[in-house]
Amino acid sequence: MIFDEDSVVRKNGLANRLAFWVAILTVIVITGLGIYFDYFLRTSFLDATRTRMAYSFERLNFNLSQIESSLSDGVAFLKVDESALASLKLINLYDDKKHYTSFLPDQEKKALAQELLNKVKLSFNDSIVLYGRKMEVIAYVARDDTKGFHLNVISYRKGEPTLFRRYESDLHYSEAPLSLMDVDGINYQHVNFYPDEAVENNTHLTLHRSGEGLTITSHLRLSDEKPNSPIAHIEMSRVLDGEYFTALSGNMNLDFILSDHPAEGVENIGPLRGDSQAFSVFEGPERYYSSMYLDTLNGRVFFNVSMQRHQLTKVLSQNRIHLFVLLLVAVLFALFWIRFITVRSLRRPLDALVAQILKIQQCDYSPTQVLESRDELQQVSESINVLASTVRDRECSLTKSQKELKYLSDHDVLTGLFNRRFWSRFLDESLKKAGQLHSSAAVLFIDLDQFKEVNDIQGHDVGDKLLQAVASRLECSLSVNETLARIGGDEFNLLIENLRSAEDARTVACRIIRLFSHPFIVGEQQINISASIGITLFPEDGQDSITLTKYADLAMYKAKENGRNSFCFFSKELSAQVNAKAELASALRHALKDFSEFELYYQPKVSADTGKVVAVEALIRWHHPCLGLVSPARFIPLAEELGLIVPLGEWVLEQGCQDYMRLCELGIRLDHISINVSNVQLDDDAFPSTLDRVLRESGIIPDALELEITESYIARQPGQARERLQYFRDRGVRLAVDDFGTGYSAMNTLQSMPVTRIKIDKSFVDGLPCDSNSVALTRAVVSLAKNFKLALTAEGVETAAQLDFLSAEKCDEVQGFYFSMPVTFDHLITYCRDNKA
Fold first, then answer.
1. Which phi and psi (to 5°) does residue 220 adopt?
2. Domain 81-240 has CATH 2.40.30
3. Residue ranges of the chain with per-residue pLDDT less than 70
4. Number of other residues whose CB lies within 10 A of the CB of residue 690
5. What start and end residues bound the annotated signal peptide (predicted)?
6. Closest to 455 in 3D by CA, of 445, 447, 465, 446
7. Is the dihedral of CA 348, 350, 351, 357 positive or negative?
8. Quick one: which H or E segment has residue 729?
């Protein structure tokens, strides 16, 4: 309709338009001049920008050369510094870790650290590190953004490296965690990124991409006359971070950044260093961009510069205004004088162009014969054909993209299985269909056992590949009536349709369990993993997808409780257990609001020789107003599972220390109080500060507090456990291994731990003195404790015969019902006074 009205207008005004030919020519000429001036201004600005950016790259290249020269000179002193060389030879002479004598070599290392500080500050660089003949760190200096430079030396204790640090404003060194070297970017063992001969008595420069900056490092290795006999290796580094490039941007009056990618739109990107600086400038809507690169040891980095175009935009706008005024005057002048000029009609070509446009409007994108006018109208006709082709291609691309988007919206990107979004919709539809057909179905909830450990130990990359392997194996085993989906993490759901009986679901579950009997090949390693499966049946267990999935999840957790690598059907009893557990969890959370329902009981620990009370063990009790006295065996594991053991354990620690100090005020002097600490508490990063606070606020001396830990904590990650337990021992707190002999800790692992006591488990004591196995095991533990010079406590002593045997075996302390059950604090006071503690 719009095109019809326009056609009428063209018919009525054709004669007048024929008279405007010269005016149109005038417009074309003036417009061409305007376009030329626009192009000239844009080109001039672009050339000036290119010159300015070229100078900025030259300036950066010069700065890098100056820094590299400074770094090379900074490490070259080691070749001629006789004092430093003498210190290095002395340190190398005493580098036996097992028989390390710290005084003399450590003093030399500190002197070298001071020399390193002078060199790195004099050269205005960031860090310097010195390695010994074994390519292990002797000393290094690094910069802290807040406190300045800090000096670091490596000493050894029991063959293990120990870091000592002081800031340049401090007078003395203090021990620091070895992990701080990672924070400083220092490797304890030197790592080569180049051939040894490249740094043999000569400086060598390397570049690294580090975080958001660029690190330039100079390397120098000194060797004896013998081949492959290094004396030392020294490295000095300078980090060009964001502040450096901000300052450079201010000096050059443009924006300079370091990136892993070139600026968007820049095509011709050359190296910063070379015979010629080949680069191009990209003209964006608001800014000019250009990039050059440098190759580093860990990849290529790009130096991107940009500059605003607002000056050019302002000039172009003014030029266009002038052009418009000139054009208006010229057109009016032409219309006034040249109405008599005739030109050929425009009606036919315009109608042809309109026909082309209407064809596109009707979704017909086939090529149309181009208008043969040999002028701008022909170009428009050709452009319309190009437009039709472009629209056709875009619609095809859009259709393809919609299909891909539909696939991605329904499938898991990692495994290619159906995802949670598709599964929810599919399960609802399948259950609805099964209900209409009166058929049965089963939902299986599959969860990988100990997958978190694989992720934590092997890394997420290995974990992802393992999930892909598991998904592939599961998918290959599916039958026609089975649908598998990954709903997140290491969890998979399986729907079995047209189920004949529960036995069919059992058969499928057994088949899946067998799939995990063979290891999964991930890269070059084999990983063994199992699965736990929960099963719900439709319509017996539920009528909707949410209920069935929830019940399958509960059944899966029951399978894990039963030992993993198994399956479990949902049952009403399981639901009742879950509800009871949920009620207990709710009650536990409520009780933790003010801890008024909790109370500490104490079991006396008696000297096996004198029979006097020498210590007590704190045991928590929960008095619930409705449930009564709740056994710790019920609520302690639940607290650990819910993450509530941390505040609960903190309350036990505070209350126990306060009660011990009250006993002291009453004149009851005990050697110590024992408090159990769970693995969850020990893994909590805030626990050391909590312990320090309780010691400080309660006033208890650290030696009067004994923390009881489990063997499982020691055996799980010995290195991490040793570091955490050493922190407690450094504070003076005692450490006891509870229920010793029931865990998996090796003897050499126990020997390396800073524990002070082991406690013989009640299961060993029960058979004394008649059972030969109990006697042998108990004597072995006693002998182990004496050899390791550890105190010894026996738990669960209930008879005089057991006491006599343990006393004869020189057991230090005993505790059990033979002496006293766990009692309240008031009863403890009476008991201690009666037994003259």
1. -150, 130
2. no
3. 1-23, 34, 41, 194, 196-199, 225-228, 275-277, 311-316, 319-320, 323, 327, 331, 334-351, 356, 362, 365, 371, 373-375, 377, 741-748, 836-837
4. 17
5. none
6. 465
7. positive
8. helix 718-730
Quick one: tokens of 689? 């500060």
Contacts of 556 (CB under 8 A, 6+ apart): 445, 446, 447, 532, 533, 534, 568
Reference 48, options 320, 313, 307, 317; nearest CA is 307
Q: Boundaries of CATH 3.30.70.270 in the chain?
A: 411-570
Which region holds residue 836: left if phi is over 0, alpha if psi is between -120 and 50, else beta? left
Confidence (pLDDT) at 745: 53
Spatial separation of the C-alpha atoms in residues 449 and 806, rounded to whole Å: 42
- Count of CB atoms situated within 10 Å of the CB of 95: 15
Q: What is the pTM of this model?
A: 0.46
664-690: per-residue pLDDT in tens? 999 999 999 999 999 999 999 999 999
Check if the beta carbon of residue 192 is closer than 8 Å to that of residue 204. Answer: no
Residues contacting residue 702 through CB under 8 Å, at least 6 positions apart: 695, 731, 732, 733
Tokens of residue 449, six digits = 């056992």
pLDDT of residue 337: 62
Q: Closest Cα to residue 264, out of 247, 245, 242, 285?
A: 285
Q: DSSP letter for 308, please.
A: E
Question: What is the rounded distance in angstroms from the CA atom of residue 566 to the CA atom of residue 588?
Answer: 30
Cα–Cα distance for residue pair 555/569, rounded to 1 Å:
6
**Beta partners for residue 152, in sequence order:** 140, 165
Residues with Cβ within 8 Å of 438's Cβ and at least 6 positions away in sequence, in order, are: none
Among 303, 135, 109, which residue's Cα sits nearest to residue 219? Answer: 135
Give pLDDT, residue 739.
76
CA distance 152 to 141: 6
CA-based R_g, the chain, Å: 41
The conformation of residue 519, written as its DSSP 8-state character, comes to -
CATH 3.30.70.270 matches 411-570: yes
- CATH 3.20.20.450 range(s) for the chain read 584-834
149 and 141 Cβ atoms separated by less than 8 Å: yes
* The pair of three-digit structure tokens given for residue 504, joined into one six-digit string: 């069919």
Distance from the Cα of residue 188 to its chain's centroid: 23
In CATH, the architecture of 584-834 is Alpha-Beta Barrel (3.20)
**pLDDT for the residue numbered 472:** 93
Q: For residue 711, how far is the Cα from the chain centroid?
A: 29
Q: CATH 3.30.450 residue ranges in the chain?
A: 81-240
Residue 734, beta-bridge partner list: 706
Q: Name the token pair of 629.
A: 């006295």
Contact 613, 606 (CB under 8 A): yes
Sheet architecture: strand order including 567-569: 482-488, 491-499, 440-448, 531-538, 567-569
Whole-number Å distance between alpha carbons of 525 and 262: 38
- Distance, in Å, from the CA atom of 49 to the CA atom of 281, rounded to the nearest integer, reads 8
Residue 203: other Cβ atoms inside 10 A: 21
Task: 59-68: list long-range contacts, CB under 8 Å, 24+ apart.
Answer: 59/248, 59/251, 59/252, 60/248, 60/256, 60/272, 60/303, 61/272, 61/273, 63/248, 64/216, 64/272, 67/125, 67/216, 67/238, 67/240, 68/205, 68/216, 68/218
The two tokens of residue 309 are 């175009």
**Considering only CA atoms, which of 663, 657, 671 is closest in space to residue 700?**
657
> Residues 474, 492: contact at Cβ < 8 Å?
yes
For residues 792 and 781, is the Cβ–Cβ distance under 8 A? yes
Which helix (H) or strand (E) segment holds residue 428: the answer is helix 420-437
CB atoms within 10 A of CB 317: 9
**Residue 406 identity:** K
Query: Is residue 43 within 8 Å of 316, Cβ to Cβ?
Result: no
**Cβ-proximal residues to 682 (8 Å cutoff; 6+ apart), any chain:** 709, 713, 721, 724
| pLDDT score of 246 | 87
Number of CB atoms found within 10 A of residue 481's CB:
13
